[in-house]
Amino acid sequence: MVMKLNLTEKDISVLKVVSQVAGIFSLIVALTMIFSLVQLKIINPLDNPVILSVKEQYDKDPANASNAEQVRAMDLMARKAYFSSRWQVETGSYLLLAGAIVFILCQRIISDNEKAMPVIPGARPDVSAKKGKNRKYLIAAASVIMVTAIAASFMLRAGLPEPMSKPGLSAGKSTKGSLKAPEPDKTNWPFFRGQDSRGIAGGKNYPTDWNAEEGKNISWKIEVPKRGKSSPVIWEDKLFITGAENKDCEVYCINKKTGDILWTGSAGNIPGEPDVLPRMDPEAGLAVSTVATNGKEVCAVFANGNLICFDMNGKQKWAKNIGVPETSYGYSSSLVIYNDILLVQFDSDKKISLLGFDLETGEQKWETPRNGRPVWSSPVLAYFKGQPQLIINGNPAVSSYDPSTGKELWEVECMSGDVAPSVAVNSTMAYAVTDYVRLVAIKPGPSPTIVWDDNTYTPDVSSPVATDKFLFLSTGTGDVACYNSEKGDTLWTHYYMDQFYASPIIADDMVYFLDRSGVMHIVKADSHYELVAESSIGENTDCTPAFSDKKIYIRGRKNLYCISK
Amino acid sequence: MGGLGGCKLKGEFTINKRTKNKRIKNLELIMKKALPYIIFLLLLSWHAFLFAQDRFPRPEFETGYTYPTNQLPLQRAQVWEYIDVAVLIGALAVAAWLALKKRSRQGLIWMSVFSLAYFGFYRQGCICSVGSVQNVSLALFNNTYTIPLTALIFFIIPLLFALAYGRIFCAGVCPLGAIQELTALKPIKLPKTVETFLASVPFVYLGLAVLFSATNSQFLICRFDPFVGIFRLDAPYTMIIFGALLLLAGIFVNRPYCRYLCPYGVLLSVFSRFAGRHLTITPAECTNCRLCEDSCPYDAIIPSNPEVSTEEPGKSRKRFILSFVLIPVFAVAGGFILYNLAPVLAGVNSNVRLAKEIRTENETGIESVTKSVAAFKESGKTEAELFEGEAAIIRQFEKSSPWVGVFLGISLGFGMVSLSLRSRKNEYRPDQGKCYSCGRCFKYCPIKAKNGNET
């Protein structure tokens, strides 16, 4: 049964008046509520200037009881005003709803009563024509949405980052624009301080507890035929290291699982090699620079200027002398490979430059002169805003180069003295340090800036290591420090009894600090100091360890150790 | 005279009595009509905790007064979740009976009042089937999220009912539909162009809602639920104003949210098209009297079409084939457009917005003072981490957005195909996709059910 009201015109008039009154009432309440709501949202009663001034007077004379009473009175008044507004809004919402309901109800009854009896509309609708029109309207609606979407995709991009590199693109396929730093590999440790020379190891579960004197967790130990201070590098199952005695320079390929020497490559008797040994630290010798490998070639450079390249089976591909790098402590810069280019940081008293060699033929492709004085640091690969950069801690400038062309990208003059530590990099900044000078955080770019600096903890040989959160360093006086890498705050420091020459390595959320007496101090890579373990090889060492497949390789003064759990 | 006068008086008395009876009857009917609204008003008494948040610091007492400890409300017992599910199923069953068997518009109005009371004001609009779309998509694309069983049931059950009986959920169970149904007074029809354009919005809204929830960016549907602020009497006042405006518009353009926004309605519409038993306009055989032709404010009545179009069959066939062939073209085009739009869409994610603010701060040198930037700076996280996260989110959007485009393209394609079909109909019947089963059309049909059930 359909309920139908039979209202008279008088009833309708009454309902119309009620409806209009309810409508006007609702409108007034709504406006009052909006006003109160705005007041509540934007005005903080305790920010009232009168209260603030009374509070100020009280602060100046806290003993004055009348001031205190005045503050209380004003505070109470402000709160009362605030809660009154809240009450108004709360009550108003009920009144508004009541008014709206009365209005809608009256309107509904009026409209029900006024509803005309169903009538037969005009001509019978043409369904086909209607569908035809609907098709056109649908296409028009879809076009409007499509055009809006296309316009929005171009117009609303402001403030968004530049298109980033796609995951899965291997680094080095292109020369500029959109590259990302490759993740450290768990097996390969291709350069001094590992992947890109950044000092960060891939993989997990590296040993923390060993003792070489007791043989605990030592997989193997071999004596390196010739001495040297170069650090081990690893590609798959092969470990490479150099040694030299007098003028005899050698590259050793060692089975990383057994410690057997697979082949020895001689790097002597190369045309251009000097008859007289260059000036060098007698302790350091000719084999200080660490080799570089890409899994197809392994290249080494010695302090007499001999540069040599072998394939992975020890067959010499090419060799040349690039000139004797005469410096007060001897040449020590390690090699880096970028795509098919071998990068050599050449520092001597006569000239300093960055050299690029064709890895396949040994042909020099370019040379970029550098300004300043020779240093003993090594180049580091970084990727800032998708652009690969080779960064050198120099004197006086920290400088950046395109690793493909050698073109200088930027430089910041901020160093002096004997610069030996290499830079540390993370995804946004480069960190350079020199003992007795300072530690600086550089924001790279066409106009690079120093974001923060500090001179409390400055290593003389060891290089710092950075993540996006932390910067860790170890000094020649035995201090270890952790900074907030973004802001430069010193998060923690710790003093050990021995000096550090080896560079710290971050592996598995821990930092491995190897001191000169051969003790590895392992601490959590965190904002507070937490020692995980201390383990020793019982032999002095200055070389930076290599990390590969859950094993650590440390070169001592005489021996090479493989440490595993 | 006295007799005549007495007669006259008697006559007046009889007329007055009849008028009085009529007035009483009218009053009773008005009261009956008013009752839902009175209940609606009473429901608001649940909102005593309005504006309960702290606005400014507590007073500094020096009298030894100790503050009472904060009381955290107890978590709602699990059993109530099951009660919610039982109420949902019960309400759907009753609504289906009212719409299909009883054919009672008044009953459906009462069902709307109940749903508004229970799912709207008592449960405060949460959980609702409309929002559960997001829980489902988040669960489908995120291993770390486990969907609550009730959310899953709230998503599935109305769809199953739609598959069985049409959009019963919209008829009287959805609180969002109920509040609009009760305030729908003077239906007017929008121009067909505007109607078609607005009707395509729910598809876009559904696509974006699924995208944003799947990428863990935000629950768009809940955030822009226009009526939840009214149910809770607590929301940003822009949303309350939006809700109020929508209700005001709904007086004339009935159920504007259901028709032009509701993303769940898209799914219900698809399921309802295949409903096993749907509401009918007439309880018996349609006589083609045409009285119901303009009765539906939602344009959900398909008129009879005894004479197939005069258009050549070959032409219609060609159009049908072309529409069918265009489906993959629309899908690919949609995918491509949305792929281009992905970085913009990623801006919905709060981390992307934060990264944008930080980048602007770095570029302009003007320190941002927003709460999110201040919170980020206090969190100890680095900008590099933030930007890395931003890049990851954008990549996620680049992977997901094209699928939204494909969905929209396919929807457009099938829309075109359905408009290219030639069909002959001998009766007036509801458009099963569009019909909300509200029962407005019942009273326009002169044929009444034999059992006299119809009200």
Describe the SSE topology.
The complex is a heterodimer of chains A (565) and B (455).
Chain A: H1 9-42, H2 49-60, H3 65-114, H4 127-155, E1 218-223, E2 233-235, E3 238-245, E4 248-255, E5 261-266, E6 292-293, E7 297-301, E8 306-311, E9 316-321, E10 336-338, E11 341-347, E12 352-358, E13 364-369, E14 380-384, E15 387-393, E16 397-401, E17 408-413, E18 424-425, E19 430-434, E20 438-443, E21 449-454, E22 465-466, E23 470-474, E24 479-484, E25 490-495, E26 505-507, E27 510-514, E28 519-524, E29 531-536, E30 546-548, E31 551-555, E32 559-563
Antiparallel strand pairs in A: 1-32, 2-3, 3-4, 4-5, 6-7, 7-8, 8-9, 10-11, 11-12, 12-13, 14-15, 15-16, 16-17, 18-19, 19-20, 20-21, 22-23, 23-24, 24-25, 26-27, 27-28, 28-29, 30-31, 31-32
Helix pairs in contact in A: 1-3, 2-3
Chain B: H1 2-42, H2 78-102, H3 105-122, H4 129-141, H5 149-165, H6 168-172, H7 175-182, H8 192-199, H9 201-214, H10 220-223, H11 228-232, H12 237-252, H13 256-260, H14 263-273, E1 301-302, H15 313-345, H16 350-364, H17 371-379, H18 383-420, E2 429-430
Antiparallel strand pairs in B: 1-2
Helix pairs in contact in B: 1-3, 2-3, 2-5, 3-7, 4-5, 4-9, 5-14, 9-14, 9-18, 15-18, 16-18
What's the short version?
With 565 residues, chain A is an alpha+beta fold. Helices cover 22% and strands 30% of the residues of chain A. At the A-B interface, α1, α3 and α4 of A face α1, α8, α12, α15 and α16 of B.
Structure overview:
The complex is a heterodimer of chains A (565) and B (455). Chain A has two domains: 102 residues; 369 residues, Methylamine Dehydrogenase, Chain H (7 Propeller). In chain A, helix 2 packs antiparallel against helix 3. A four-stranded antiparallel β-sheet of chain A has the order 1-32-31-30, with no helix packed on it. Chain A is built from four helices and 32 strands. With 565 residues, chain A is α+β, with helices and mostly antiparallel strands. Chain B has two domains: 241 residues, no CATH class; 108 residues, no CATH class. Helix content of chain B is 63%, strand content 1%. Chain B has 455 residues and is mostly helical. A two-stranded antiparallel ribbon of chain B has the order 1-2. Chains A and B meet through helix 1, helix 3 and helix 4 of A and helix 1, helix 8, helix 12, helix 15 and helix 16 of B.
